[in-house]
Design goal:
heterodimer; A: 194 residues; alpha/beta; 21% strand; B: 392 residues; Rossmann fold; 2 domains; 5-stranded mixed β-sheet; globular
């Protein structure tokens, strides 16, 4: 299918990989794109490696098979790199974004990616989320990093749609909405790539 | 029209909210739980007037729906897999009593071995129960089909129950773009439910479910069959009207690039969407590939299928269920039978795939067309019943 972007999110059960895919899908829909968002349903438990996926396109998406070779991979937990092949199927011009304190160059070495075609971006989303939200929920800041690294949506449209969605869920907790919005902004500014 | 992101379950729950049935009786089961869970929230929030009956099993859910429908209510439930299996005896009763109960149903494998993922074993097991069966490719179709089913099932010439299926997890839990119709428009499309008679109409009492032995049972079953024979015309008319009002027209089957196709596959459910991508790709390479998607499995559109496949050179029927009957799976056998009386009988093969949620890839669907290409060229079918994507 032409014009199709596929994203794979890696996280651990409880880190919000599924929620990130859903929120990001809805934000893309708000800009007029066709979207899909779906998790991989296995024996999901708190802390176990989980995956979720997005498809985005300017045309209706009819594909209902698994995402095999994503253009973008987002890793919410750096410890996953030891146990999960997070770069599996990453397309040759693809982008991988990792939540880590390490610089993109070091991360590239760890991932075993040759310099050149695929881009590696890193940001310390755990610290950002702890500072703004008060606990380690790296999923929303990683959406900010994703938008910066790919340019697939504007920061403004991501912020306005995410705010709307969070307002529904956290009507009585404005500090959570504010914290998430601030962490998206900060991750957008701080994410670095090479 | 409002464009939103909804999973298949959310879309069907939304349709139920707009239908605002009198009674919903339900018991949860993965992956259909969300449908009635979301709906129960609508009840709690006062968004519908429905009497929600939380029952202790699916057998009771269908029993309560039967009681409610017989009393004159518009009744709905939702289920999947073992839940549908547990309803089995009540399914026949709903159909035999001619009660237009509408049931969203999520396709899931049957135990054993225990598995919560998609295949069509559950729905196919109920195929001769007298229920209308509508398969949906995606969340949009699921939503549209639930709304249309109310009109179809309640039509005076039909008055049969209907189930609307989506593929478990793939559609039930996959977030997709759905265009929702305004509440008022749904309300006016489905109209008021007018029963011919109801048990609560005490001025016109009658017996329902009485013993019916050698003398009349056959006549009543014959009438039930007649109602099913009337159904295609109604399904078409409702699909046509739906298209005129909301821009999405529906028929018994859908043909994708089939008009001039030489190689055709027959598919149900979400795999139809993935197959479109394969067909577009093959067409670009000059291969005349096409697809026939069966939307209505009951009543089986045998005439339309025979006509649509009469000029192709080879056909493969993809079934997400194994008949375990010794020869082929349900859709294969019915499509093959439909082709028997046609002027040309294209060579036909069966592919059983995706049991228990096993992934079906673009490459695997392409391999089916490659085999059809060989069959079309040589006219020789090496193996009629094939398994796709299984280790053996």
């Amino acid at each position: 299918m032409k014009n199709l972007m596929e994203i794979r999110w890696h996280g651990r059960g409880g880190q919000g990989a599924k929620t990130a895919a859903l929120l990001f899908g809805e934000a893309a829909l708000a800009t007029g794109k066709y979207i899909q968002a779906f998790p991989e349903y296995g024996p999901e438990r708190m802390g176990a490696p989980v995956q979720s996926f997005n498809r985005l396109s300017d045309e209706p998406i009819t594909l209902h098979s698994q995402v095999i070779s994503p253009e973008v991979v987002v890793v919410l937990d750096p410890t996953l790199i030891e146990t999960v092949e997070v770069t599996a199927g990453l397309s040759s011009g693809g982008v991988i974004i990792v939540n880590t304190r390490e610089a993109p160059r070091e991360m590239r070495k760890k991932l075993g990616l040759a310099p050149g075609k695929q881009k590696v971006w890193t940001v310390d989303a755990s610290t950002i989320s702890r500072e703004h939200i008060g606990r380690e929920i790296p999923n929303t800041p990683m959406m900010g990093a994703l938008v910066k690294a790919t340019g697939i949506l504007s920061l403004e449209s991501l912020l306005s749609d995410t705010k709307k969605k969070l307002e529904k869920k956290f009507r009585h907790k404005p500090e959570i909405i504010r914290g998430n919005i601030e962490s998206i902004k900060e991750a957008y500014q701080k994410v670095k790539g090479e | 029209m409002k464009r939103v992101a909804r999973t298949g379950n959310e879309a069907m729950a939304e349709a139920m909210r707009q239908i605002n049935p009198d009674v919903v009786a339900a018991y949860p089961i993965t992956p259909a739980t969300e449908i009635v869970q979301i709906f129960s929230q609508f009840v709690a929030d006062g968004l519908v007037d429905t009497e929600f009956v939380a029952v202790e099993s699916e057998h009771s859910a269908m029993s309560a729906c039967i009681g409610a429908a017989a009393a004159g209510a518009r009744a709905m439930t939702g289920t999947s897999s073992q839940g549908l299996a547990l309803m089995y005896e009540m399914l026949y009763i709903a159909a035999g009593l001619r009660l237009p109960i509408v049931m969203p149903e999520v396709n899931r494998a049957l135990s054993s071995p225990i598995n919560i993922h998609c295949d069509h074993s559950d729905t196919m097991g109920a195929r001769d129960s007298g229920w209308i069966q509508i398969f949906s490719e995606n969340s949009q179709e699921a939503y549209d089909n639930v709304i249309q089913a109310v009109r179809i099932c309640e039509h005076p010439q039909v008055r049969l129950p209907g189930l609307i299926t989506v593929d478990g997890f793939i559609i039930s839990h996959g977030l997709e773009v759905v265009d929702l119709i305004h509440d008022e428009e749904v309300k006016s499309f489905i109209g008021e439910y007018k029963t011919e008679r109801s048990l609560l109409d005490i001025k016109h009492p009658y017996s329902l479910g009485a013993l019916d032995l050698q003398d009349f049972y056959f006549e009543h079953k014959r009438q039930e069959a007649e109602a099913m024979y009337n159904t295609p015309e109604v399904i078409r008319a409702v699909g046509e009207e739906f298209g005129k009002r909301f821009g999405r027209k529906y028929d018994l089957i859908e043909k994708y690039k089939l008009e001039d196709a030489e190689l055709a596959i027959v598919v149900l459910g979400s795999t139809a969407g993935t197959s479109r991508v394969v067909i577009d790709d093959l067409r670009e390479k000059g291969i005349k590939a096409g697809m026939l998607k069966i939307r209505i499995f009951r009543p089986f559109p045998h005439k339309e299928i025979a006509e649509s496949l009469s000029s192709v050179k080879a056909v493969a029927v993809m079934d997400r269920v194994d008949g375990v009957a010794g020869f082929g799976s349900p859709t294969f056998n019915e499509v093959r039978a439909a082709l028997y009386d046609g002027p040309t009988r294209p060579p036909i093969v069966n592919y059983i795939y995706g049991l228990g949620g096993r992934e079906i890839s673009l490459e695997e669907i392409t391999s089916v067309y490659k085999n059809l290409e060989k069959i079309a060229k040589t006219g020789e079918v090496k193996k009629i019943v094939n398994y796709l994507g299984v280790r053996e």
